[in-house]
Design goal:
21% helix; alpha+beta; 11 strands; 165 residues; 4-stranded antiparallel beta sheet; single chain; 5 helices
């Protein structure tokens, strides 16, 4: 089969020259399609049961596409490429203001972030942050910028702010 990106079509291969090609056993492709596999780099490429070639320069977008066969992953990759240097935008999630992009791999936390008991979890790779301190609970470093409203002992509401450094 041919995936024709410029024409946004998938069609039967007719023997024409292609810039990039993969020769993958049909049963591996069928299994991945049946199982709705979203990361062929793990399920096929690590199996070492394929051949690959190209007549043009390396295309990281093609390789990335084959690792991101879901709407969420494609959106994440598009955002990552378009906003690699912007970590200044904030967003509101469940009463907290947090930096919009995950410090790990820049996923949009308005789509992948979930807050429970003051802990923000990015569902893309399951990284977690304590929102009261901004500290990453998954690894050393990678703090997050956050602020939120918390109740005080006198019944007033006060802002709790954390700046990632």
């Amino acid at each position: 089969m041919v995936v024709d990106f410029p024409k946004a079509k998938v069609r039967e291969y007719a023997g024409e020259d292609c810039i990039y090609w993969y020769t993958i056993p049909a049963d591996l492709v069928s299994t991945n399609i049946r199982d709705h596999e979203i990361d062929w780099s793990n399920s096929i490429f690590l199996s070492m049961q394929f051949e690959v070639g190209r007549s043009g320069k390396f295309n990281e977008f093609l390789t990335t596409f084959l690792k991101c066969l879901s709407r969420d992953r494609i959106e994440y990759v598009e955002n990552w490429y378009s906003e690699q240097s912007d970590q200044t935008e904030d967003a509101e999630i469940d009463g907290w203001t947090v930096q919009r992009r995950c410090p790990h791999l820049r996923a949009d936390l308005t789509k992948t972030g979930k807050i429970e008991d003051g802990v923000l979890t990015c569902s893309l790779h399951d990284w977690k942050w304590d929102l009261a301190t901004g500290r990453c609970l998954t690894t050393t470093g990678h703090p997050i910028r956050s602020s939120g409203i918390r109740a005080t002992g006198s019944g007033e509401r006060a802002a709790a702010e954390v700046a990632a450094g």
